[in-house]
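Translate sequence into structure tokens.
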Amino acid sequence: MSEETKVPLEDQQTQEAEQQPETQAGQECPKEEESQTKSSKKEKKKKIGETEVLKAQLEAAQAQAKAAEDRLLRTAAEYDNYRKRTTAEKDARFNDGVSFALTQILEILDTLDMAANAPCADESYKKGVTMTLDKAARALEKLRVEEIPALGQPFDPNLHAAVQQVSAAEGQESGQVVQVYQKGYKLGDKIIRHATVVVAE
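Result follows.
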């Protein structure tokens, strides 16, 4: 009797012992879920933080790229302005040099022009003078020097220098250039020498 009583008591204790871990295990499950929830929240926060950092880095990189682009555009514009300015200065120096050289030889050309237009019995001599003037005209053309149109043109104080006024003949208009004493020359818009002319009243 006592043995039979012992066995069931032991069985009971064993059953109680088996039930206790189950209960403890059952009690531990909510703790595990809670810790998993906390860790997932931490991971989400970590990802959000990383995303914000990446966004900030991207914005900073974009700002740097924009600043670099602006600097490059400014540099290109400055270089273009510098190139245009130096080209203009170079052209101006060239024109000044040509103008100075031409003013030194214009009197020679005037003398040759008078010799070509003067009556002369020696045709060979006259032909030589004319050929020299033709060569001079071609040289001036290469230098982009043009003769200022004067004879028969309306008087223009920007191009002509009037030394005399005469009564207008039949068919002539008032203010028209009727005679050229000295030819004028220009290089582009730069006047090297005004044409010296006689104007009809």
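Note: The beta strands are 145-147, 160-166, 177-182, 185-187, 190-193, 195-200.
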